[in-house]
Amino acid sequence: MSCEELAGWDGKADNPWCFWTPWLCTGDSGTTGKKIEVSVDECGPGGLCPYVHSASCGLVTLHDDHDKQIAKGFTSGGGRITFEGIAAGKYTVKVHKRDGSLARMMVSDYTEETASAKQQIELASGDAPWARFNLENGSQDELTQCANARGNITFTDAAGHALDREEMEWSWLVELETAGAIVDTTRPLHFDSDDTNIVSFRLLQKGSHTLRFIRMDIPSYARELNPDYEKLKRLYTTNEAPIEYTINVTASQIGDELKLDRKVIDPLAN
Prior knowledge:
Immunoglobulin-like; mainly beta; 19 strands; four-stranded mixed sheet
């Protein structure tokens, strides 16, 4: 996989315990151009940071040599952000907590000393420079400006009788739409251990989102792990109208996990 795919927080792998480790992708991108790459991680336990986790949905700002803010954005699920279209020069990159103050980063891998999360970067010719932040343990909860959502989906017929959960995993696609754009797609994944169909999404910013259930008719030979969702949607969507729910993320829910428990009536159930 490419570094960009690895950074896309698990690539929606069917196995919920599948994750990518940032140190697999620590080299420069190998590309040239007027951009600055930023990687934000959180130290694991142990003080000397033997483990790291990507710090997602944190505000990162870019400042010129007079400390004037010229760009900002939020880290991806892989803790990454790229500032593009930047002229050559000296800049400062800063990582902020949710309350607006600067996060704290480890000064090095060989000490427990911390400092404000800001780094000076010089953009010249050649490969894009990197600003790499290794934040102190616990930073994710303080900096995230998103919520996660997870819940159990129960599929029934019109009479309210529960349908076979394993079959329902391949009968629906679930899309998350934000501001008119599809930002994520998954299936109601079936887990035998607790007999549930789980739907989960990450990095929901404050505001309104649409959860859309699309009825599919996927043949058994097309059922495989980590499928191409766009291909499945194009080939196997039925004529049934999608079922939609609205998810509203409030400021008080940032950093928490929203419950997505829903009952969905299958229009094609006998």
